[in-house]
Write a structure and sequence with these properties.
With 142 residues, this protein is mainly beta. The protein is built from two helices and eleven strands. The protein has a single domain, classed as Sandwich (Jelly Rolls). The strands form three sheets. The chain has a five-stranded antiparallel beta sheet with strand order 1-8-3-6-9, with no helix packed on it. It has a four-stranded antiparallel beta sheet with strand order 2-7-4-5, with no helix packed on it. Strands 10-11 form a two-stranded antiparallel ribbon.
């Protein structure tokens, strides 16, 4: 998003990527740098593999969430996970100026789905009268 009038109205939202891919067509993205932003990725279907400069590697599956706060600078990459279709989105967020040079934070959480139970997940804000921060609630890397 450019710093034009529209960019100022839409901040902190920078970019929204909706993806729908077959792994045979998408070879992946090698390690590349980011700074001053955070991304939230969610998978509706399939899986994607990930790696980052903090040493994390793995596969994010349907229902999984990735929180990647590049802040002062980090490298990440990834590509198709298991065979088949992968669908999801990645939302880029501009960090507030006081956080742009802060520490890098990465969380990969594979949340499971169940027809019998409903799991409420609050990434940020308030739920059940309690303040929630994504980093404190979702620590799973499986």
């Amino acid at each position: 998003m450019s710093p034009s009038d529209l960019g100022q109205v839409l901040k902190p939202f920078v970019f929204l990527d909706l993806f729908d891919m077959e792994n045979a067509v998408f070879p992946g993205i090698g390690l590349h740098p980011h700074s001053g932003i955070a991304t939230v990725s969610y998978l509706f279907e399939g899986s994607v593999r990930y790696e980052d400069s903090n040493g994390a590697t793995g596969v994010l599956r349907a229902g999984g969430v990735e929180w990647f706060k590049a802040a002062q600078g980090a490298w990440h990459g990834g590509g198709p996970g298991d065979a088949g279709r992968s669908r999801g989105f990645q939302l880029w967020l501009a960090l507030p100026p006081e956080q742009e040079l802060g520490p890098v934070e990465n969380v990969y959480s594979n949340l499971t789905r169940s027809r019998e139970t409903v799991r409420r997940v609050c990434w940020s804000g308030r739920t059940a009268g309690r303040r929630v921060r994504f980093m404190r609630r979702l620590r799973s890397t499986t």
